[in-house]
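A note from the maintainers: we've had questions about how concatenated examples are separated. There is no special marker in the raw files; a new sequence line simply starts the next protein. For clarity in this README we add a label.
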Amino acid sequence: MRDIGIRETGILVSCSDYHIYKKLKMTRGEAMKHYLDVVHDALEAGLSPRCHFEDITRADFYGFVVPFATALMEMSRESGIPVKIRACDTMGYGVPYPGASLPRSVPGIIYGLKHYSGVPSELIEWHGHNDFYKGVTNASTAWLYGAGAVNCSLFGIGERTGNVPLEAMIFEYASLRGTTNGADTRVITELAEYYEKEIGYRIPDNTPFVGRHFNETKAGIHADGLLKDEEIYNIFDTAKILNRPVSVAITNTSGIAGVAYWINSHFGLTGDKMLDKKHPIVTAVKEMVDSEYALDRQTAMSDSEMYAFVERADVNGELKRGSDK
């Protein structure tokens, strides 16, 4: 690694008894010596190690993690080279609750590394998994208790239930700090489109921020609120922040308000040009939609079907597809 110019390298240092005894077939003392020898070699080569404390949420925190981290910090001071510690919640067992017992306590892990092993915040990373739906919450908790960084993957893609989504932590950061610190959040939408169109990765429709339906409503009462003021039912200005205007899916529960909103949004009608719920085009399209569901249809109307309905209802040629967003 040194010869090819790499300056920082990850080193796996599994720290739970499951890994030490069952995977490595070592004692704790043997494992720690083995790890420290490898880190020593990396430092001798001038490399900055990032030590991956695998399975930290099942490890003996005070019996193994603290003394090991303390030894690493001593080696870091002696060499003058930063040694990073990545706290890996490999199985997603971490919990964010204040007062929870170690080793599952995320606050306790970060606090312990900082205050018992002397690891500065800038050298602590949190690496979480989402097995118990706590990936984002645990990562945010790690930040709040002093971790300098959290590891993420785009759209949470990762082993089993996935890792911490990068796009989620961008919004967590903005929520906590009140700024995106220069990040262009619209790129999130571009990345999602790239993954689907170029890579062929299928993002679930209801995935926050990037799913096809994340800001789409099917309920008529919601659509009615959107007609009055988008802020009533849209989580934020998704058009401005993610280049994703709020949308409405037309079903048997969308109501006439949903039809009106669909037409206005898809034909780019704003201000005085917007069609209200009493407009003849809107009422005619609503009747066509109702006739579909009267035949026991179960699925939402597709955009192509809606465009066809509007074209049939627009007998005077008021609307033009060219203005469609």
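[label: protein 2]
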Amino acid sequence: MSTTADLVAVLKKELKSAQMTYADLARELGMAESSVKRMLAKGDMPLSRIDAICRALKMDFSELAQRVADAQPLLKELTAEQERAVVADKKLLLVTTCVLSQWTLEQIITAYRLSEPEVVLGLAQLDRIGIIELKAGNRYRLKLAKAFRWRPHGPMMQYFRENAALDFFSGGFDGHAEGLLLVHGSISRALAPSFLERMQRVAQDFQQQHQADQKLKDADRKGYTLLLAMRDWEFDAFMPLRR
């Protein structure tokens, strides 16, 4: 939910964009310029006054609300409670996965045995959770940052470990653009973090390409899952042989 302060902050940007000075706005509102400056500086005003400023800017309140929503910071990580809500319902988890790939409602019901009401319900749940902003016509806007990741020890990763990891790694990784690399070695403690940074950049590159390729036809795109990992680890079977 946007606060009045959020609305006022966006109004200030709109005034600047429209090249409307405080004096211009004061004339439109029938107020003293000093009163307008004080009102905007405090960032506290009734909705009736916000409506009046919108009229002066020749914009609807709905447009203002949308721009406020667009200005909100995107989530890099969900709370544990939000993740639990997703993994608690298999159908909601499926809709979430499709949403992360930016599928439309029509694409989801074409690919899976979900009815339109079921998908719409899932989208509404994701809106309440905070993953998307649901719009008219069951369109939506993702509220996740490009650097978004699931919590390392959160409900989603726990669900993956318990229900999907074996299925994922049971694949041959020998299809088109598939591969599985297992590398072990001892490297400098000081340099180890740089490899993690490179992995994070690869993940971000993958996500950015995913965003860019949304303009392509469905036939020109294919779903891939990229899993990157690095940790200080030794195979359990070796532990009894340790001196």
